[in-house]
Amino acid sequence: MSFELIDIGINLTHDSYDADREQVLRRALDAGVAQFVVTGASLQGSQAALALSRAAPRIMRATAGCHPHHAVDLSDEAFEALSVLARDPLVVAVGETGLDYHRNFSAPREQRLAFERQIELAIQLRKPLFLHERDAHQDFIAILRSHQKELPPAVLHCFTGNAEALEACIDFGLYIGITGWICDERRGLHLRELVRQIPAGRLMIETDGPYLLPRDLVPKPESRRNEPMYLPHIAEVIATARGETLLALATHTTATARRFFGLPTLS
Predict the structure, then answer these.
(1) Helices within 89-229 (DSSP H only)
(2) Which residues contact residue 148 at a Cβ distance below 8 angstroms, ignoring those fewer than 6 apart?
(3) Looking at residue 1, what is its pLDDT?
(4) Structural domains of the chain, ranges and CATH numbers in brackets
(5) What is the per-residue burial (b if ≥16 Cβ within 10 Å, else e) of 170-187?
(6) Alpha carbon distance 161, 168 (integer Å)
(7) Contact between residue 14 and residue 210 where contact means Cβ atoms under 8 Å apart
């Protein structure tokens, strides 16, 4: 069976990949992962994500943004530099941006200000939003709703919330990214019920590597580092939960990702 998958959230600039990044990509390509959206979560990380995409534009694109953890670092100067970066044609979304009240590495007020600024940038550039939310659902939806009339397409990546949150996100019009969290028997099994509720055409898949190594891999890898070659395993778990074949899931999630991010068709 032949299929193409797209990893819409891979932190490929992370230093854990520095020693073998080319091999990581080769293993993923051999496993059926055809393209990658490299996450920018800070100004420096966004610059690195764009550099990777420029080196391999057929298979890679970048996002440019400031993760809520780094909101405290989004000075006017940094935001201006990020705004220039986001205009590059190989940057296909603004983000990773949003709210994370789980750890509050940046104060909630700083997070909200950084989120608002990046939403306004995405509106100005007419580029999609790549979103993050954890333990901040009410504020997250409220801020998005305040921009609803002009908001570009937006994907909530690495969705881990409950049924109420998913319903609100779908009703609002968000796309949903699912990771290997669904493979975690301790905290992710509820997603196996919820993924059935995500309409085809609004679902995308991702590893969020090097984080969130699927816990149900057999045999278990010696390293805890996640990488894109495990995306087919995640896709299989999602497909089974949705009552679909892997080929069917690959077909519609890949088409959705290509349309959402404007990725080139490989032929």
Answers:
(1) 108-125, 137-145, 163-172, 191-194
(2) 172
(3) 53
(4) 5-261 (3.20.20.140)
(5) beeebbbbbbbbbbbeee
(6) 11
(7) yes
With beta carbons less than 8 A apart as the criterion, state whether 114 and 66 touch: yes
* Dist CA 3 CA 21 (whole Å): 23
Interatomic CA distance for residues 23 and 181, integer angstroms? 24
Kindly report the number of other CB atoms within 10 A of residue 123's CB atom. Answer: 16
Q: How many residues does the chain have?
A: 267
Provide the token pair at 261: 């991010």
H or E stretch covering 176: strand 175-178
Question: Which pLDDT tens digit goes with each residue over 57-78?
Answer: 999 999 999 999 999 999 999 9
Q: CA angle, corner 130, sides to 30 and 23, nearest 5?
A: 20
pTM above 0.85, yes or no: yes
Strand partners, 27: none
Residue tagged 């998913």 (tokens): 166
* Bridge partner list, 203: 176
Rounded to an integer, what distance in angstroms lies between the CA atom of residue 198 and that of residue 216? 23
